[in-house]
Design a protein that fits this description.
The complex is a heterodimer.
Chain A lengths: L8 H16 L4 H29 L2 E5 L8 E5 L1 H24 L2 H5 L2 H17 L3 H20 L4 H32 L4 H7 L6 H18 L8 H5 L5 H25 L5 H23 L4 H22 L2 H32 L10 H4 L1 H15 L7 H13 L3 H27 L19 H23 L1 H16 L2 H7 L2
Helix pairs in contact in A: 1-2, 1-5, 2-3, 3-5, 3-11, 3-14, 3-19, 5-6, 5-11, 6-7, 6-11, 7-9, 8-21, 9-11, 11-13, 11-14, 12-13, 12-18, 13-14, 13-17, 13-18, 14-16, 14-17, 14-19, 14-20, 16-18, 16-19, 17-18, 19-20
Chain B lengths: L3 H24 L7 H19 L1 H8 L6 H20 L21 H27 L1
Helix pairs in contact in B: 1-2, 2-3, 2-5, 4-5
Classes of the chains: A mainly alpha, B mainly alpha.
């Protein structure tokens, strides 16, 4: 055990420390705002250091309590985990800034910031977990804190969304837990690296495949793939925009992360499951895209886009070649940044016009030309107009699909891209170009036009920050491509992961 | 419930139950018990007191809002996990032990402080929930 591995705890423990600190500041919501912003800035710094260390020195691992793997609780940071922890912290910072300006005092008094921090801790924990039961525990932490964040404030719409969200996610957890139990019964271990070693000589291959399918079902529900995705559009528009942004950027991606991790490390032998995944990806791409087509509320449009674009990542996993995995990972990085930004954008539009209905919106470009240009960045990055960020991973995925002769999958991806283009073009025309009047706003109701400049800056800054990140992903695509190819090579050859955990 | 028997009994039961909860907490490292169960027993002691004497009296008895036990306990558990990193450079949550067992309590180490942290979190969480429900009922 090297001492460098210890650093792995830093991003995780810091999130925990920050959450406890925020709990101590329960009644001081003014202090909570600043503590959250500066704390998440520090968290981003720690995550960057972790990322750089893994980039230079390869995968790190550490055993909590010093109990050796496969018995102890293992934390592992390979390139994939470190990248996602970095992205989580970046989204965390953006959302903390945005929340400081936008979330109502009522919600802050009910402990909004501490719970948000627990959610971010759960996400970082899930990305770093090195054994499958701990992965489950982190998922539970994520669900519980996200449930509080959905319901906090107690509006009717929120409670309705929360019931759908919670029921289906608990069901997914139960399936996930059952799959873990089966796997433990077969192999006698829960450590991911140890599972990867022992998976090869399991006698009961049929039961092993059943547990693989159950993992796919459990994580699939959590990442909102066809057919059990309906809970997502039904609940993601309910909470405040800042909360939806974390959910949109990270919650479904945790499911995708777990799928990619498990199906590249443990269940790799069965071609049937990848074939099955391919079909699911096709249906997800199609239904998500068509679902977005008929929506009027822009937050619901974006919710269906989450479903639709999860299909790209699942498609990458289904093709399961090195370029396809690189494409899936690249897409994931792009998607996390853009989807979070889209929901922040929807929240900003709501602050300006007090509606999210496309029919009622309009004329934003005439009124706020510079702001509209900023908002165009995430919107058109999502479509993937070259050279913006969505373009490059799609190229990798389509090329990998053609190479592997998955023509139907490629067709579905192209159709989904096309649908995205149509919908975003229509949204742009409706919301920004169409003639529209600013609504009658009661003075002092707290909407954007009569906010003080400092608060306006706090609202726009995170959107600009994430837009810059998307531009970076788009214009410096070779950096991201290099990173995702390295991740893909680590994923397709798990030996380095296993070596990092088992001495 | 305003019966004189319950009110009188609860005054004696409160310290007894609290003592019992500490016993369970200390017993927990190798035997059944520990911070979670101990915390529940302690919470029950206060709930019983609240049933007999009314919520306001229990509040004055506690002095601080039970919610504050949660960050307190979390901080204690966090520090007990952090101690081995700071003192010996071993991983988070490694056991640090003092030399020689104490009479009646046994060997004291960082796991005990972790458990005490859990004890406080459980008291805080259960009392906050129950008090809030009682208030709104």
């Amino acid at each position: 055990m090297t001492t460098t591995g210890q650093f792995l705890f830093a991003p995780l423990l810091f999130q925990f420390f920050l959450a406890v600190l925020l709990l101590f500041l329960w009644r001081r919501t003014d202090l909570q705002r600043w503590a959250s912003i500066f704390g998440n800035l520090t968290g981003l710094g720690l995550a960057s250091v972790l990322f750089l260390r893994v980039w230079r020195g390869g995968a790190l691992s550490v055993q909590a309590g010093g109990w050796e793997a496969p018995f102890g609780i293992t934390l592992v940071a390979d390139m994939f985990s470190a990248t996602l922890v970095l992205l989580t912290s970046a989204i965390g910072l953006a959302v903390a800034i945005y929340s400081a300006a936008s979330v109502q005092e009522l919600r802050l008094r009910l402990g909004y910031f501490p719970i948000l921090q627990f959610l971010l801790m759960g996400l970082a924990g899930a990305f770093l977990a090195g054994d499958i039961f701990n992965l489950y525990v982190w998922f539970e932490i994520i669900i519980i804190s996200s449930f509080v964040l959905i319901t906090i404030g107690g509006e009717r719409l929120q409670l309705e969304g929360a019931v759908k969200y919670f029921t289906i996610n608990i069901l997914a957890s139960v399936i996930f837990l059952t799959a873990i139990a089966i796997l433990y019964g077969l192999t006698g271990t829960l450590n991911l690296a140890d599972l990867a070693v022992k998976a090869k000589d399991i006698d009961n291959q049929a039961l092993f495949s059943v547990s693989a399918l159950m993992f796919f079902a459990g994580f699939g529900i959590k990442s909102a793939v066809f057919p059990l995705y309906f809970w997502l559009p039904a609940s993601y528009h309910a909470p405040p925009a800042a909360v939806s942004a974390v959910f949109a950027g990270l919650l479904t991606k945790v499911g995708v992360y777990a799928l990619i991790r498990i199906f590249s490390l443990v269940f790799t032998a069965d071609p049937f499951i990848y074939e099955f995944m391919g079909w699911i990806a096709i249906l997800t791409l199609f239904t998500g895209g068509v679902g977005a087509l008929v929506q009027n509320n822009i937050r619901r449009v974006f919710s269906f886009f989450i479903v639709c674009h999860i299909g790209f990542m699942i498609a990458g996993l289904a093709i399961f070649s090195r370029p396809a995995l690189a494409g899936a990972v690249f897409y994931m990085a792009h998607d996390i940044v853009v989807k979070a930004n889209l929901f922040l954008l929807a929240g900003l539009i709501f602050k300006i016009r007090h509606t999210n209905s496309m029919k009622k919106l309009g004329g934003l470009y005439a009124e706020y030309p510079r702001l509209s240009l900023l908002l165009a960045v995430p919107l058109f990055s999502l479509v993937g107009i070259p050279p913006l960020s969505g373009f490059w991973p799609k190229v990798s995925l389509v090329l990998a699909g053609l190479e592997g002769r998955h023509f139907l999958l490629v067709g579905a991806m192209l159709l989904a891209s096309f649908l995205t283009l149509i919908i975003i073009a229509r949204l742009w025309a409706e919301v920004f170009w169409k003639n529209g009047q600013a609504p009658e706003i009661k003075p002092n109701a707290g909407y954007f036009p009569d906010m003080e400049p400092k608060r306006r800056a706090l609202l726009v800054a995170p959107i600009a920050m994430l837009a810059l990140a998307s531009l970076y992903i788009g214009f410096a695509a070779e950096h991201l491509q290099l990173l995702s190819e390295r991740i893909a090579s680590e994923l397709s050859d798990p030996a380095s992961y296993i070596r990092a955990v088992l001495p | 419930m305003n019966t004189i028997i319950l009110r009188t009994a609860s005054n004696y039961l409160l310290p007894l139950l609290l003592l019992f909860s500490v016993f369970i907490l200390l017993r927990g490292h190798y035997l059944p018990g520990g911070g979670f169960v101990g915390g529940l027993v302690a919470a029950i002691a206060f709930v019983l007191h609240a049933f007999a004497n009314g919520l306001d009296n229990t509040r004055t008895l506690l002095r601080i809002h039970p919610g504050y036990f949660m960050p307190l306990g979390l901080a204690l558990s966090f520090l007990s996990g952090l101690a081995p990193i700071l003192r010996t450079g071993r991983p988070f949550m490694s056991g640090l032990w003092f030399d020689g067992p104490l009479p009646a309590i046994g060997l004291i180490g960082s796991p005990l402080f972790f458990d005490i942290g859990v004890y406080f979190v459980v008291i805080g969480a259960s009392l906050t929930i129950i008090f809030t429900i009682t208030e709104n009922a």
